[in-house]
Amino acid sequence: MNQQTKITTNYKLPVANGTHHDCLGSHIPTIGGASRAIDRAIEIGCTAMQIFVKNNMQWFAKPLSEEEVNSFIHHPLRSHLKAVIAHAGYLINLAVENSENHEKSLQSLSEELIRCDQLQIPFLVLHPGAHLGKGIEHGIHCVIQSLNQIHQHLPHLKVRIALETTAGQGTCLGSRFEEIAEIIARINDPERLRICFDTAHVFAAGYDLSMPHGAEKVFARLNKILPLHQLCAIHLNDSKSGLNSHVDRHEHLGEGKIGTETFRWIMNAPELAMLPKILETPKGKDLAEDIIAMKLLRSFIKR
Question: I need a surface site. Which of 162, 248, 280, 303 has the fewest CB within 10 A?
């Protein structure tokens, strides 16, 4: 094994119960309906995918029809996907209360959770929110209260919200592992939350994922604060922005500041083997860039 990519014992992490590395895909457009995303995902070689369950830049959408739901959950190729997750809309902000947008955020997130439940999608990735100058502690308190309210309103949904690590751009929460840990620790029902780890965001937030050994050090640190069993997905993105820049800019793998060796380590780390790994790098309509990136990532796997 190449010394640069060897998983050393200095920062040993718990090993997942399995060795399934090829749960790999990208964020897939739903143009033409959610079921068309499955077709697109399979066409480009995905074994996992992420989608928006409605327009990500609109608060609300008309309810899903029975036909739309059935065509998605009974799609003949859906079983070929080992994981399907969703990403919440970008307008949602739970970190500032007592505003019109906060009420819209609560309603919009509730509707997205219901849509995920209808489509049998187990996880909805969510940015924790931005405190807009009110302060981190105030923002965290608002997020906790908001999530408690949503969980109380939707007590029987099996869908879990996955709080995503962020770059900390502006006043966004979630750039420090401790902030997400505090939300999970203080919420009424922590089992209803999970974590989504975004490589570009974490790097821009100041966690040096670059090799040698950067990735395993960061994941070992994460495991001390947020146990790895709480992870439900990894977003594989290189960063156009530098370390600790707090600027959220995704780049193609190997063309940013992180470097390909980090992604080689992630693809071979046994403790991350079972996790779906999702590309959110720039792409055109034909998704050719995702095909190239997945081919690269699969070439890293040591058979």
Answer: 303
